[in-house]
TrEMBL record:
Gene3D superfamilies (alphabetical): Spore Coat Polysaccharide Biosynthesis Protein SpsA, Chain A
Superkingdom of origin: Bacteria
PANTHER family on file: RFBJ PROTEIN, UNDECAPRENYL-PHOSPHATE 4-DEOXY-4-FORMAMIDO-L-ARABINOSE TRANSFERASE-RELATED
Name of this chain's protein: Glycosyltransferase family 2 protein
One Pfam family cited in the UniProt record for this chain: Glycos_transf_2
Positions of the Glycosyltransferase 2-like domain: 4-167
Length: 232
């Protein structure tokens, strides 16, 4: 079993080295690490090409910023592992929890696994009420349109069997990728598991990038890709 870890990266000079070091030290499986630099302007790209070149297997450089969804699509296309997992470059999620995330797939009981920030796990940073409420609302709305019972649709931590991932045909370029993936997974009717994870969320002052426009787009994506409206 080989695990591919796709890391979309945009202006994460402060955290990318720690993320990559932890990916290498905390994940015991045979692994393929793919970084997609989404046209970083803060020195991240230069760091990846020099000091950190031994920390990954593939570095893909975007010459234009496409958003998280665009970076993930590029990384997914290059993946060769049996299982593919997503890791953000900002340390909000702990790479040490990836083995637990993929275990249901390894055990053969899941085709897809979501890491839930709302099902317990280890320590989680107390953060803004309205941001949490927004996540809860989007998850509820997504559940209504997919007939799933997820607790955290917007989570970064998602893992897939490679043959399932290849069926999704993703198109969203920014954070709308999360509800799009969820809706298209729901349409496949494959077994999905949730695993409780910790979460160390950043503030906007610390570099968090998602904003209210992304929330509006998420609502649009939930409706647009709903299995109820896309039965082909």
């Amino acid at each position: 079993m080989k695990l591919t870890i796709v890391i979309p990266c945009y202006n994460e000079e402060r955290t990318i080295e720690k993320v990559l070091a932890k990916v290498q030290s905390a994940i015991p499986f045979e692994k393929e690490v793919i970084i997609v630099d989404d046209c970083s302007q803060d020195g991240t790209r230069e760091l990846l090409e020099t000091k950190l070149s031994d920390f990954y297997d593939k570095l893909i450089l975007h010459e234009k910023n496409t958003g998280k969804g665009g970076a993930l699509q590029t990384g997914f296309a290059a993946a060769t592992g049996d299982i593919v997992a997503i890791q953000d470059a900002d340390l909000e999620y702990d790479p040490a929890e990836i083995p637990g995330l993929v275990q249901p797939i390894i055990d053969g009981i899941a085709d897809v696994s979501f890491g839930s920030r709302f099902r317990g796990g280890n320590a989680s940073r107390v953060h803004h009420f309205w941001h949490m409420l927004g996540n809860r609302f989007l998850t509820l709305l997504s559940n209504m349109f997919t007939n799933l019972h997820l607790s955290d649709m917007e989570t970064c931590y998602k893992a897939f069997r490679i043959d399932v991932l290849r069926q999704l045909e993703l198109t969203e370029k920014r954070f709308g990728i999360e509800p799009e993936m969820t809706a298209k997974i729901a349409k496949l009717r494959v077994p999905i598991y949730e695993i409780g994870i910790s979460y160390h969320g950043r503030s906007y002052e610390e570099g968090k990038k998602i904003g209210w426009k992304d929330g509006v787009r998420a609502i649009y994506a939930i409706v647009k890709y709903s299995p109820f409206f896309n039965r082909k």
